[in-house]
Amino acid sequence: MAQHRVQHTFERMSLRPQNQVAALGILGVMIMLIFSGIYLSQVASFATTNRQIEEAIAERDRLERTNEQLRAQIAELETIPRLLARAEALGFRAATSSDIEFIVVDGYNPDRARTVVPISLEADTAPVAQYDETFSGWVQQQWDALRRQFDGFGGS
Amino acid sequence: MATLTGGSANVQQEMINRRLPFLMLVLVVVALGLLIQISRYQWLPPNVERELQLRGSQNTSSVRRLPAERGIIYDQGGQPLAVNTLQYEIGASPNLITANRKREVAAALAVILGRDEFQIYQQLTSATPWQQIARPVTADVGQQIADEDIFGVVINPLSKRFYPQGTLAAQLIGFVIEDNDNTRGAMGVEGYYNDQLAGRVIDQQVSNIPFQLPTRSDGGQRGMNLVLTIDRDVQFWTEYELNRAIQSTNATGGTIIVMNPRNGDILGMASYPTFDPNNFQQVDDPALLTNPAIAAAYEPGSVFKIVTVAAALNSSTITPQWTYNDQGVITVGGVDVRNWDRNAYGVVDATTALSRSLNVGMATMALEMGPDRFYSGLRAFGIGQRTGVDLPGEEGGILKTPGDPDWSEGDLATNSFGQGVSVTPLQMITAVAAIANDGLMMQPRLVKQIVDGETITNAQLLPAGRAVSAETAEIVTGMMIRAVTDEGGGVPLAQIPGFVIAGKTGTAQIPFAAGYEPNVSIASFVGFLPADDPQLIILVKLDRPSGYWGSVVAAPVFKQLAERLVMLLGIPTDDVRRQLEAGGGVVR
């Protein structure tokens, strides 16, 4: 039935069979070209993105290495002999015990944790996990790691 | 076009029907053969499989080696003591450099690296997927090559250990031996915590196909960071005072240890001579690379009397009111024990025996205790055992006890005043720190925290055992205060205005094969402050100083250093502290 309908359609187009074959061929080529174009465009976009990611990774690595280098340089510039020499050049001198005066403030307790009301701060990052080097600390660490894994499953 | 008649078509059909099963059989056999052959390729010998994979990936990917990055070592205030600096390894993937560019690339690299162009060209024309061109090169040279942006030339960063503080705390931190992509910590914290610090090398397959997403393991190669108990400033002034003492007394060596007696934290530990960890290869004598504070045992001399008195008190052998008749000499096991000044002191109590550092008094106490109580008392202070500090190469010293083939009764007497027994400086300060910490001995430690990414592990405080009761510790502290302040027999050179110091001097002879070396000594002083609430304990030890006596050469070093440290650490004088406490304040 469907075959008859197609035959009928071609007969109504009043094309000769050769032309019909040619038209079908051209149509096929055009469809192929369209799909190829879409494919190439996608691949090109993908390659460009990957290239950008690679460059970003390289830049991040470079910045990390630069940071490391700078950290070493800063540490070198902050060595005590250098700071002492610089301080002396600026006219400072080392303090002696006679230069230090302790002021007694009645009721002042430097142990702030016991006297000052703790201020609740909202941390913008997750708190750094701290564990004691004990068995219970180790168990806690393993438990937290397991919990993070489950949280990860739930989130994805 | 020819048409087939009905009869011939039937014949043909019949022929096809006859041949078809045979043809199908052949096809099935061939297909089976092919299937078997294909299946065989799935289980290739490993070496063949690797070779095929390598050949397959040669043109599509290369291997990038991410070097291990050692963790950073910080002092307790966050000052970096060991960091990594940047160097580069220059490599090339010859298959990515086209033949007509190889000469040009070789020329460019030769100019920057200062190497032979032909040699580099030969490397670029090799059939291997990767060639190492130069390693290591400085950050500047690496950057120059990176700026050239040569396709096919790979610049891998290398991590080089660097100690920005120079020689500061060199014996504590140790150094790193670099072996291609691996680094191995040697000595000090670098050696003890090598597994944590080292990190790991990662070989990363990098695809040259742009459609494959680049992969990178984040931080997998980074080791853990360490936060030490060392305070950089305390360490600096400890070394400063040690060097000054060495120069002024012409001592051949020396050690100073600063510790918090409450928790065993080592705040500073310095020994002379030392080395530069950035150039440890230039050290001629390997012994210099060891840490004498934990590895060089010595006869402690009179400092050891603190342990003897504490053991005697704790075993109830004596009381603070205990007296003996000092005749200037006592013979034990055929050994004549004399006081350091060869004088007789008559009836003397325990406090005077310690403050005047009387050998006869100590020998008498040891005899009254007997070997069992005496040596078990010493063991309670960790004498003859390693302290367990987190450093490699620690020695336990020598403590001969009854039953040992070389022990004699005379040893009981001589051991009581620190002869015939050897300890390391760290053992000695740890033992005296137990007195400062109400009798509880803490295991000394150097690492406070281990930081692994977002996880911080606090090193545990480890009590090493109760050496003596709190009451005994208090009594001995009082005796040590007398040893410093006693008129006529005290140590004025160790006294610091505003602070009560508990301390003891030591002047030990140096043994050699035929007895003791004449006219040379190991002069030492150990003391803690404030005596009623100790926050610092300092041990000073000078080898063969020109001044000979501990009270003359070691005590002033203690004073100089302690004066600096109380300012540095903000420890108020005793009267200010008492005012603070009276006003409800707490001094930490």
Structure, explained:
The complex is a heterodimer of chains A (156) and B (588). With 156 residues, chain A is mainly alpha-helical. Chain A has five helices and one strand; from the N terminus they run H-H-H-H-E-H. The two termini of chain A are 51 Å apart. The relative contact order of chain A is 0.02. Mean pLDDT of chain A is 78; it is low at 114-124. By secondary structure, chain B is of the alpha+beta class. Chain B has a domain at 232-582: DD-peptidase/beta-lactamase superfamily (Beta-lactamase). Helix content of chain B is 37%, strand content 24%. Chain B contains 18 helices and 22 strands. Chain B has helices at residues 6-42, 46-58, 99-113, 117-124, 139-148, 170-173, 188-192, 194-197, 232-249, 292-295, 305-314, 350-355, 359-380, 409-416, 425-436, 470-485, 550-568, 574-582, and strands at residues 61-66, 73-74, 80-92, 131-138, 153-162, 175-179, 182-186, 202-207, 225-228, 253-259, 266-272, 323-326, 329-332, 335-338, 346-349, 440-442, 447-452, 455-458, 463-466, 502-512, 515-529, 536-543. In chain B, a hairpin with a 5-residue loop joins strand 2 (73-74) and strand 3. The mean pLDDT of chain B is 89. At the A-B interface, helix 2 and strand 1 of A face strand 3, strand 5, helix 9, strand 18 and helix 17 of B.
